[in-house]
Amino acid sequence: MIQLTSLKKIGLLFAGLAVMTACKSSSDQKFKNRKVSFNSDWSFHLNDSLKDKDTIGASTQWRILDVPHDWSIEGKFDEKSPAGYGGGSLNGGLGWYKKTFKVAAEDSTKITSITFDGVYRNSEVWVNGHYLGKRPNGYIGFQYEITPYLNYGEKNNEIIVKVDNSKQPNSRWYSGSGIFRNVWIETTDKLHVGQWGTYITTPKVTAENASVNIETTIKNQYSAEKKATVITTIFKDDTKVTSVTQNITLNANANQTIKQLAVVENPVLWSDEKPELYTAVTEISLDDKIIDQYKTTFGIRDFKFDLNKGFILNGKQVKIKGVCMHHDLGPLGSAINTRAIERQLEILKEMGVNGIRTSHNPPAPELLQLCDKMGFIVMDEAFDMWKQAKSKYDYANDWDKWHKQDLIDQLLRDRNHASIFMWSIGNEIPEQWNETGIEIAKELAAITRQYDKTRPITAGMNPPVNMNIDAVTLQFEKKNVSINPLAGSGVLDLIGYNYAHQTFEHHLKNFPNTPFIATETTSGLQTRGYYDAVSDTIKKWPVSWDKKFEGGNPGNTVSAYDQVQTPWGSTHEATWKVIKKHDFLAGMYVWTGFDYIGEPTPYEWPSVSSYFGIVDLAGFPKDVYYMYQSEWTNKTVLHIFPHWNWKAGQTVDIWAYYNNADEVELFLNGKSVGIRSKKGDDLHVMWRIPYQPGTLKAVSRKDGKVVLEKEIKTAGNPSKLKLTADRSTIKADKNDLSFVTVDILDEKGILAPNANNEINFSLKGNGKIVGVSSGDPVSHESFKGNKHTAMAGKCLVIVQSGDKSGRLELTAKANGLKQSTIVITAE
């Protein structure tokens, strides 16, 4: 326990933030947030339990940093880590954060609160020695009012946060450790809109108009009754659309929820293709003076999940083409960064993805904000376990005390997001097979419907049809099918399938009254840039989920042909073929969009990150990315692989993903080796040819006319480095990032596909290198270093801006290779 007597002895290390949000006129306040960032200049100490004994004092050694922060990603990979290889073989521990800050004297009559968007895990908070509380769940945001404990004016305040992630394992994947999401200070009048205090729905939507229901919870923390006016104005971009006004009387020290109805004429509807958003600005006036302003972003859209037609959005049938995502950001760990999330979503959008499942926990608010803006159909998921644990120290230990509060907070926080179309109350819950699970599901569903009746409820069941999926056809012929108790309980609005793609086509027979969603699919495995000699054999690795994998490939690699799957999953092509075939199948969420740290199926140590991703840990697409792009987008696609550096005479399989064409012809050094066309439900074509160095050229044609041409050339010896930034101009705000791809090329500029040189990085200017990665699931090099070993000729380095504008000059060097420098401008 923290030693409060010791706190008085801790010296103030630095002057902090002055929190000043005095009331201003309406024009001055328009569109300004009442909360400010509280991320900068924290002090951090990672506990050494042998010395510190779970306390801090005057002799404690601190270092200065900004949050969001993940201390686990800074550590070394450890085979003996209590988190295990499932947790990425990175250690947790116990950490302390503290920060000094000032609060303006004029704010002494106001209400001040501190909001944490997420702390992993078991956080406890003190302000000026006063204990505020504990929150075990690492993924949900929470707020403490700190008004009674503050010093105002020139006297400093001190906040201390204890984060205990020492009991391991507590997660099946890499969690990260620390204050890994944003922190905010919020200052309001004593009469104000409460935390997550608005709820906006659009129950009736037509082309002519949309009704907008606005529920607003207002808190009166004055000791006297107050008469006030509430005006809610709806804007589209910066243009006023409409407004509604209501006069209210609030009792002293009471909350009141008011309801307002607005009508938007000729509404611009939100969709995955055109994610149009509106903003509701709620202003509270007291004695003709605006004392509080609260913004809510929302979308106007009409949707339903139909038993026969799948997902209908604004009257149009839309197939959900989604992916599951864990919360870590690869080499950045779990410390949230808006640009890093945006980059992931951009890469996925380019592939044709229109859906995100937040597996298996409430996401960072920034992810949902970006999904609103970019057009993703989100499944917002609450829990990976209920009362029955999956890991020794996981959330099941906190379930009884905390699950209701955590779920309510998630619903209140997230329910205005236009991108959210369904709630998932659990993933692969062990209790799904018994009556206990049904009772818990009823409770969770009732809570969910209490706070949001506009979205259906589902759960990721494995599978909803309890059957031997290897004998699925025989089972159905005999009609010997039993229903998962949770699926058959009637609690859920959508039947969520985790895997079991062989059963999808029988959904209407098994669940004639409940629509379908594939909550989790596929689990195909690949290592970017590695290819087995024979590509048309399907491999199931491991043999069973509960048996250690024996065998595999040298170096714990997996073929990047779409030929390796888990025994519970499928290849990427297999599940998509089923989903695309039937209208009643609303869509799918593939496991996973990106590789993530931990859970390195099918291998164990020394592998430390996953093989499931369509995109690797560094953000480089694997080949199957282009299969989805050819199926999920209108872009014209022709992608041939693998590389063209092999042993003389070696037989090599060449695959092509293509669309908008009838055929593809392949040429080797100018000589045709055959024309291939997709037959039936094929999603790729293949040639098997002996290797000769030179040039492979693929030509796609439609009606005899050339559509696209693509070439792959044999690379010579690695000669030089090439740096390419995703953005060459970034903001000088200490947060923005430039993701720089490093390619190892031969002297002619051809990518050297087998190069694995160690690359050293240096940076000049007001910025820093915050991450390096090659996407290699077996690499034990630090993500936080200034060097990294490339994989398959590629590496990534992430540059973060400082707080001053200017040039950032990044240089990459490797022994025997010509160095490269790139300039990034921060402004």
From TrEMBL:
- The answer to whether UniProt assigns keyword Hydrolase to this entry is yes
Locate the transmembrane regions by residue number: none
Q: Which residues form the Glycosyl hydrolases family 2 sugar binding domain?
A: 93-185
Task: Give residue ranges for domain Glycoside hydrolase family 2 immunoglobulin-like beta-sandwich.
Answer: 200-301
Q: Which residues form the Glycoside hydrolase family 2 catalytic domain?
A: 309-475
Q: Name one GO molecular function term.
A: hydrolase activity, hydrolyzing O-glycosyl compounds
Q: Name one GO biological process term.
A: carbohydrate metabolic process
Query: One Pfam family, short name please?
Result: Glyco_hydro_2_N
Q: Which PROSITE patterns match?
A: GLYCOSYL_HYDROL_F2_2
According to its UniProt record, which protein family does this protein belong to? Belongs to the glycosyl hydrolase 2 family.
**The protein's name in its UniProt record:** Beta-galactosidase
Give the organism, scientific name: Flavobacterium cutihirudinis
